[in-house]
Design brief:
Layout: E1 22-24, H1 28-32, E2 39-41, E3 49-56, E4 62-70, E5 87-94, E6 99-100, E7 107-108, H2 113-127, H3 135-153, E8 162-168, E9 171-180, E10 183-189, E11 194-201, E12 210-212
Antiparallel strand pairs: 1-3, 2-12, 3-4, 4-5, 5-11, 6-7, 8-9, 9-10, 10-11
Length: 220
């Protein structure tokens, strides 16, 4: 798959990391260093908005990041249905070609819509793991499920995905969409040259729209 590395990918409350790269803290400054525009839900969404994290390559260049909307999910949900929360996370992935690492010892793959699908799928899993799962088994469960999410992201034309068109900066844009018992995931590419992923629970994806964030400080 032409995507970012699986290593170190986390959900809403953990860092996400690109291959050979680093993670940046949840500060506006980290987002401001990105060489691409950030995306979030458009103005039709009137709920809370919050920063998550960005991922950078080995040279410190920001490659991707996420913004949250709604009720921030807990990574340790209790057993009550009331604690499931309603949230949507938007993942922005900058367009990047195949390139060598700064030390010349490796190669970073190109980013595509599959990159966004992988980051969104793994983020959903990390945010919504089953409450009744024994903690000792969580790592094994998460490893198995994230491997499955990676394989699904590598096959966006497969039967697991359906087509969904949603507005991006006011223009209908095609996305790949799938649902699971944990929530939904979608991914696509924008006319502006970035790849978008999103995941959520309790908020229908069918009514969402996306737009470039004019002032990332509104999420801080």
């Amino acid at each position: 798959m032409e995507t970012t590395s699986r290593a170190g990918a986390r959900g809403a409350d953990g860092p996400a990391e690109t291959e050979g790269g680093t993670t940046a803290p949840r500060t506006v400054d980290a987002y401001l260093r990105a060489p691409f525009p950030w995306y979030g839900l458009d103005e039709a969404f009137t709920g809370p908005r919050w920063l998550m994290q960005v991922g950078a390559d080995s040279d410190g260049v920001v490659q991707h990041g996420a913004t949250g909307h709604g009720e921030a999910p807990s990574i340790r949900p209790d057993t009550s249905d009331a604690d499931k929360g309603r949230f949507a996370v938007v993942v922005t992935v900058g367009t990047s070609p195949v390139r060598r690492t700064s030390d010349g010892t490796g190669q970073l793959e190109a980013t595509t819509a599959s990159s966004a699908a992988w980051l969104a799928g793994s983020g959903l899993l990390a945010s919504t793991w089953p409450a009744l799962l024994d903690h000792a088994l969580r790592d094994d469960w998460l490893k198995q499920q994230t491997e499955a999410a990676f394989e699904l992201a590598d096959d966006l034309a497969g039967a697991a995905w359906s087509a969904l068109s949603l507005p991006v900066d006011g223009a209908l844009t095609p996305f790949h969409y799938r649902e699971s018992e944990f929530g939904w995931v979608l991914a696509g590419s924008t006319a502006g040259g970035v790849h978008l992923g999103a995941y959520g629970r309790g908020m229908s994806a069918y009514g969402l729209g996306f737009s470039a964030i004019e002032d990332i400080n509104t999420y801080g």
